[in-house]
Design a protein that fits this description.
By secondary structure, the protein is of the alpha+beta class. Helix content is about 25%, strand content about 25%. The strands form 6 sheets. Strands 10-11-15-14 form a 4-stranded mixed sheet. A 3-stranded mixed sheet has the order 5-9-8. A two-stranded antiparallel sheet has the order 1-2.
């Protein structure tokens, strides 16, 4: 019996050289667009069946190889008869259909072209039946897509941990195919030691599934708000430390306020501007419990308007000092 040749690559909109991942992406994109529960166009269900049939063949290397043996000279719509000796009966469905693929309701859902090549075999999925009738709607489920948004938190929340309320706008598709925007509120637990760029997962709070499929996950990508005192480098912190010329020359003990509280830092004699003084274990904690360091970046400052006595002393120092920084 002559049937019309079907170009499965053209149906999925991929080249004949497409890799398995590209075929899968194209199928899922088209399936979301054409699924009868979402798309109410008259021909949506027929197109949905077409892409399902194409994917049923091209997703499997062995079936795709046999299909490709038909050659590239055939064009969609041309009269076609299986070549002599074409006697292959594939078993579709041994672990083939996953949570983001389809399961057909009956053997009659495949085209005559498909049945002429593969003997009318169908996918044996979760339904556990081999019968069916032409025109029966496919049983198809797909997990909802994962979603990601960026949230900005104070550095102190990452240092101590916190629980913060956040509000996010989400987009959903109604059964009538219209876009609906809703606002959702969450109580988000920020773990101690989370770093900028890391993500917090809210399980089951992503995109809705299709056909009873599970919802995807929502990922909150963390960024730190700019801090007035500290700069962050992974688990280490850096802060500016202004000191006087005599503190730099003679040494001193200065009090610093860290995220963990006040500490005393020893400035050694002869400290130079631009030098970093380290306070071990006073930086950011990590999710594993280790703690970074805090670096105090020294900056030597002088009085802008010295008193008369200060002016006198600086002038005296100028006369007696043999220090030549540029020699």
């Amino acid at each position: 019996m002559a049937v019309k040749f079907r170009d499965y690559y053209e149906v999925l909109g991929v080249p004949r050289t497409a890799k398995k991942e590209e075929i899968q992406r194209s199928y899922r994109k088209l399936a979301r667009k054409l699924h009868p529960d979402v798309n109410k166009a008259k021909d949506a269900e027929d197109k949905f069946k077409e892409i399902g049939e194409a994917y049923e063949v091209l997703k499997d290397p062995e079936k795709r190889q046999k299909y490709d043996q038909l050659g590239q000279n055939w064009k969609a719509g041309q009269e076609f008869r299986p070549p002599p000796g074409w006697d292959v009966h594939f078993d579709f469905g041994q672990g083939g259909a996953g949570p983001q693929e389809f399961q057909w309701g009956g053997a009659g859902d495949f085209s005559d072209f498909f049945e002429s090549l593969f003997g009318g075999q169908r996918s044996r999925g979760a339904q556990g039946t081999t019968g069916g009738r032409r025109g029966q709607r496919p049983v198809w489920t797909q997990a909802g897509s994962d979603q990601e948004v960026t949230i900005r938190i104070p550095l102190e929340d990452a240092f101590r941990g916190a629980t913060r309320p956040i509000s996010l706008q989400t987009q959903t598709v109604t059964p009538e195919g219209q876009l609906s925007i809703q606002e959702k509120n969450y109580e988000v637990k920020i773990p101690v030691g989370i770093q900028s760029g890391q993500k917090i997962r809210l399980a089951g709070q992503g995109g809705e599934g299709v056909g009873g499929g599970p919802r995807g996950n929502l990922y909150l990508k963390v960024e730190f708000e700019p801090h007035p005192v500290y700069r962050v480098n992974a688990r280490d912190l850096t802060m500016e430390l202004p000191i006087t010329p005599w503190e730099a020359v003679l040494g001193a003990e200065v009090e610093l306020m860290t995220l963990a509280g006040a500490v005393t830092l020893k400035v050694p004699p002869g400290t130079q501007s631009g030098q970093k003084l380290r306070l071990r274990g006073k930086g950011m904690p990590s999710l594993k419990g280790t703690v970074g360091d805090l670096y105090a970046l020294v900056s030597i400052v002088v009085p802008k308007e010295p008193s008369a006595r200060e002016q006198e002393l600086f002038e005296e120092l100028q006369k007696v000092s043999g220090f030549r920084p540029r020699s």
